[in-house]
Amino acid sequence: MIDVIVLDLDGGAMLDECLASLRAQSVPANVIVFDNGSKHPTPGATARSETNLGFAGGANAALRLSSAPYIALVNNDVVLQPDWLAQVRDALDRDAQLAAVQTIITRPDGRIDGAGIDISDGTFRQIGHGCAVGVPLAVAWGVSATATLYRRAAIGNRFFDERFFAYYEDVELCARLHEDEWRVAVLPVVAAVHRGSATASRLGRNALRLRTRNRYLAARMHRGVGRITALLFEDAKLMLRGRSSIRGIVQGLFG
């Protein structure tokens, strides 16, 4: 049995496309739609929160509605190929030490959105982001919560640390999985399309603060996952383009 969790925050037509792709999957699954504080309640939602719990809190709340041994997280702005669920399920079936698995995710323009998470340079990067499909890709250290199937025995009763609220909570989860001697994998197939950050506007300026802060939180919480000096150097460059937050850096380093 497989449960698929989709968090919604006024997704509208994007959610409809996502759910249509889930209904078209070649293997059956129970879909849990969690309305995470939408201004306009999500029609047919399995459950609803009156306030936005963040991606971390919303995913954890939805997980409490699930009882399946395999649980997928799929963003409401993702469209899946009909064989996505079968491929990631088969990967978990074949390898009992595999905690989570994703496929290569592309953008609407056909270029790669992400093929897993790389931490080798001390920062956190989506492998292959912006590259053409077919380029050589690094071996992934982690998987993205954009569209991933997880093993309940590995994640337990929660997905994420809710202090993260949104952004890089999947990095922290992958760090915990590695520390517990689980493995994760990215299948070398293209089976999902992600529009990208479609609900970020609801966070306003907090989105930039959280994206900045949470990288430092993950690095401080898990030895060997991220390097503070590398993150500071990256933020110095991002600051010139208005893509970093001084407040986020301070909160991440000292909060």
Task: Quickly list its features.
255 residues; alpha/beta; Spore Coat Polysaccharide Biosynthesis Protein SpsA, Chain A; 2 domains; nine-stranded mixed sheet; two-stranded antiparallel sheet; 11 strands
- The helix count comes to 8
Strand content: 15-25%
Q: Distance between the terminal alpha carbons, to the nearest Å?
A: 41 Å
Q: Which spans of ≥5 residues are poorly predicted at pLDDT below 50?
A: none
- Summarize the amount of helix as a percent range: 25-40%
Overall pLDDT score: 96
Q: How does the helix and strand content classify structurally? A: alpha/beta
Q: Give the full name of the CATH homologous superfamily of the largest domain.
A: Spore Coat Polysaccharide Biosynthesis Protein SpsA, Chain A
* Secondary-structure element string: EHEEHEEHEEEEEHHEHHH
Number of domains: 2
CATH architecture of the largest domain: Alpha-Beta Complex
Question: Shape, please?
Answer: globular
